[in-house]
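Need residues for this backbone.
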């Protein structure tokens, strides 16, 4: 292990308990303290070599990805109203989705988005986000008034930046002709899209309207009673209100 890792420094084998991982290191201790160079001794480890380096890319490795497209197909079901709607245009033209691009005004039923447009809608530039990766949130909002025609029930899309860095590692393992185990470790940078869908729908019904109307009338009746009690018994001019409200008959 490199002497730059503090937990790897040692003077004897007892400083390197077998099976313990090197804190912030690259492997498991073998139990041996070995000479790293003329001035340092470090714990020997079981690990892959060479160790991963921290070299960062200087430019996006796949700059052409800005013109890639993402097809987002989404269907909502409002079971209470027995209503379903898909965000794609119902068409028999098999080439439509190959050429169309989403536009909120001119083409809202084409859920095909250009990657660069999505990144810019989230407030970022593609070149910066593609270099070290990032995460973009895609929110799909359905807000439907089912008293109107079904064609007016359309989703609204919004984009937000969740993280300016995104990467993950993957490895492939293989044996050589001498039965020695090797691996290729890849650190991959990319743009991740997290899609969330929310929806609500409403429709006029006479029964809830009648209940709300009746509740309102009852509320105003109760309010009148409360006002009378305050004015007749709690107000400083209660005697005046009492004389104005009631007429004594002798």
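Answer:
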């Amino acid at each position: 292990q490199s002497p730059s890792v503090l937990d790897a420094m040692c003077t004897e084998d007892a400083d390197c308990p077998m099976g313990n991982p090197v804190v912030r290191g690259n492997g498991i201790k073998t139990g041996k303290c070995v000479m790293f160079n003329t001035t340092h001794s470090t714990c020997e480890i079981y690990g892959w070599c060479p160790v991963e380096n921290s070299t960062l890319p200087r430019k996006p490795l796949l700059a052409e990805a800005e013109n890639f497209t993402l097809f987002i197909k989404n269907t909502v079901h409002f079971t209470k109203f027995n209503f379903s709607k898909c965000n794609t245009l119902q068409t028999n033209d098999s080439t439509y989705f190959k050429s169309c691009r989403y536009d909120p005004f001119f083409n809202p039923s084409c859920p095909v988005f250009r990657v660069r447009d999505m990144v810019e809608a989230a407030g970022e530039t593609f070149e910066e986000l593609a270099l070290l990766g990032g995460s973009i949130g895609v929110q799909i909002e359905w807000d439907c008034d089912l008293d109107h025609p079904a064609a007016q029930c359309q989703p609204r899309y919004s984009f937000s930046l969740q993280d300016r860095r995104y990467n993950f590692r993957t490895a492939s393992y293989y044996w050589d002709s001498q039965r020695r185990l090797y691996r290729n470790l890849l650190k991959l940078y990319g743009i991740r899209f997290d899609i969330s869908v929310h929806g609500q729908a409403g429709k006029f019904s006479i029964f809830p309207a009648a209940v709300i109307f009746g509740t309102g009338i009852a509320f105003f009746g109760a309010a009148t009673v409360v006002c009378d009690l305050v004015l007749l018994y709690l107000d400083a001019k209660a005697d005046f209100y009492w004389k104005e409200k009631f007429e004594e008959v002798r």
